Amino acid sequence: MILPSNPFARYDSAARVPRRFAHARAQQMHAPAESPKPTLGFILLAGALTAFGAVSIDFYLPALPDIARHFGATAAAAQLTMSAFLAGMAIGQLGWGPLADRVGRRPPLLAGILIYTLASLALTRVPGIEALSAGRFVQGLGASAGLVIARAVIRDRYDTIESARLFSLTFLVLAIAPMLAPTAGAWLLAHAGWESIFLVLAAFGLIVGVSVLFGLPESRSAATAEQAAGETPLQSYAAALKNRRVLAFVGAGAFNSAALFTYVSASPALFIEHYRQPPSAFGGIFALNALGLVIASQLNRAALSRWHPAVVARWGSAAALGFATLLLLLSLAGVDSMIVTMGFLFFGLGSYGFVSANASALALGAMPQRAGSISGLIGAGAFLFGALASAITAPFAASGPLPMAAAMAMGFLGAMLCIRLAIRS
Asked: CA-CA distance, 289 to 284, in Å (whole number)?
């Protein structure tokens, strides 16, 4: 996507920054005086921490129909196990974020990974669908530590612009999950049963935990420690939510994620049941749409060398809304083609890559001394909205692309309006 050189407002001619965002230069003083150049090891580890949620979802997707049959449950009940995981991710980040500001990044990160690993092992022995949902909720609580603290660690080390670039770069690691995990999950399902999927997730947690223990030093700044010592988590959240830019960019990320998770939760029923594709083929379909996210995230890095993150996020959200709206209109007109649906999903989901990293970096950059708490708000909003959207649309997913297209269009519309509000605030 080519962005115009003057999409809105007036610019600082030196850097194509909207004058409303001239404060972004001042925010760079909150980054370390000499930010270390990110090493490959740091990028891979940050990506792995961020990928906890995606790996846990995407490995699991092909098993949903088999799990429903195994426990004699409805498809909707099996889908609710996905919503339980997303709810755990949302609630967990609200706790881990301020805790990471108060006691440091490493202790809560290691505790969360331990909870995730033990919960994954326990999920291989659940007696029923209700217990599976409860276990997935606990697993989500543990996994959420990786996402919330990875964002805070990146913000500890880098300023707003560089953080946005790094969020896009770690997305390369994150995107491997939707490209490979459904296919690997389908293979495990066929050869070892759905329980083996949770064994693999436990092994993933163990490997990442050991990597954090020996390879990730503490990064919390003295300013963050001092700020956290002088306020309770509720006071920290209240201060962040009073900041209109923080609130608007957190909202943009939440609505954007609602659209993404609508697709993630609805796609198995849509492609496997409605379009009659085997689980093995579904893995390829899911990987193709993930490729769009990879391409967009890397184009975002290139765009950030020329435009302010707010500019890129605004135009990315508008493009995503356009593609989702076209799919919705075609669905309303009775067009029900798998190829057409895949095409619009590829470009619509790809546009997501221009919004997520930039909205997160801008929210964190507004109050970097509360990076953990704001990262918690970012993650909680994203997964709470994602859980609600998936719970609402999943029961109707097998009927065709219309419910998914409508929910995605509403999510992208909300993201675009939030970004506009942030720019005007």
From this structure: 9
